[in-house]
């Protein structure tokens, strides 16, 4: 049946190697080339270029993001380093300040102690001087009283009882005589 | 039942011989018109900035990018990475053969069922194989013809000439065979079975075989070019 079909088709031609075929091949060749050039140049190429440009753009964005990330990391490291330096400096400053404060405190305490000692010594000396002065005064008063008593003994005759009373009165007039003990 | 390539209208005259527009030439022009119109539409679409960085799934841009990338990858893997620029050529070839094979869906005689359509495609491949081989590999290309000894030169020449013949006749034969089988099927089927059953056969013989033949032609052409013209090591 297939052979019959082909034989019947001969006048119309399914396959024939003649001059007509050569001309038709020429026409179809031109058609093919025109179509392929148009499709390749005006369809494939622009779409491919769009895709390549997009790929390039995305690659660049990824690259930029990587660089930015690296920069951020470097900056972070830098700042962390600076913070560590600041922390260390703060520690050093605090240590120095504490030491200075301690030294100053000790110095002040020493000065205060010294001044207090001096003040105490001076006060002690004043007390001693005042005591001396009071002693001298008391001695002088005793002498005066003794002189007075002696004068009375000499002028008035006294009995034993009166003499004792007078002495007691003299002693009572003098007040506390602890300094004599 | 007529499978012949009818003459439709006179085109021009050479040496007193009239050249006619055949059904296959008409079909080719229809296919060309569709593809060129599509190309113009895509260019306008692109120029109006409808192309986005992230295309929507199933959109025209998505499908086009898939087709372009697939063809580029196919060229890179079959013809070699140094010849991946042939993707553009094979994109055109694939689209042309595919639409020619699908012409019966538009009630046209498939242009690829005419040897005059398949020979130019095979000749293009033949020229690409040898011109690229000679330009890129120079002496090495010529040495291939006398390997392993000079006596093999005629065999190599026959082998090279057989390539375009096999390419063109494979495509022509498959599409013509499919066309004949479809017609025979329509004739042999009782009328009540002609409604739905042929659709399944159309799906296989026109759609599946059409795509398969376009793919086979492109891949074989790329492989032949790689054998003779690629500088890539195997």
Produce the secondary structure layout.
The complex is a heterodimer of chains A (181) and B (234).
Chain A: H1 2-9, H2 19-155, H3 160-174
Helix pairs in contact in A: 2-3
Chain B: E1 7-14, E2 17-22, H1 23-47, H2 60-78, H3 87-101, H4 115-137, H5 139-143, H6 153-188, H7 197-229
Antiparallel strand pairs in B: 1-2
Helix pairs in contact in B: 1-3, 2-3, 3-7, 4-6, 4-7, 6-7
What can you see in these coordinates?
The complex is a heterodimer of chains A (181) and B (234). Chain A has one domain (15-180). Chain A is 88% helix and 0% strand. Chain A has helices at 2-9, 19-155, 160-174. The termini of chain A are far apart. The model of chain A is unreliable at 1-10 (pLDDT under 50). Chain B is mainly alpha-helical and 234 residues long. Chain B has one domain (54-229). Chain B is 67% helix and 6% strand. Chain B contains seven helices and two strands; from the N terminus they run E-E-H-H-H-H-H-H-H. Chain B has helices spanning 23-47, 60-78, 87-101, 115-137, 139-143, 153-188, 197-229, and strands at 7-14, 17-22. A two-stranded antiparallel ribbon of chain B has the order 1-2. The model of chain B has no long low-confidence stretch (mean pLDDT 91). At the A-B interface, helix 1 and helix 2 of A face strand 2, helix 1, helix 2, helix 3 and helix 4 of B.
Characteristics:
heterodimer, A: 181 residues, mainly alpha, 3 helices, 0% strand, rod-shaped, disordered N terminus, B: 234 residues, two-stranded antiparallel ribbon, 7 helices, 2 strands, 67% helix
Question: Describe the biggest sheet of chain B?
Answer: 2 strands, antiparallel
Strand content of chain A: under 5%
Straight-line distance between termini of chain A: 169 Å
Structural class of chain A: mainly alpha
What is the averaged pLDDT score of chain B? 91
Which regions of chain A are unreliable across 5 or more consecutive residues at pLDDT < 50? Answer: 1-10
Percentage of residues assigned to helices of chain B: 55-70%
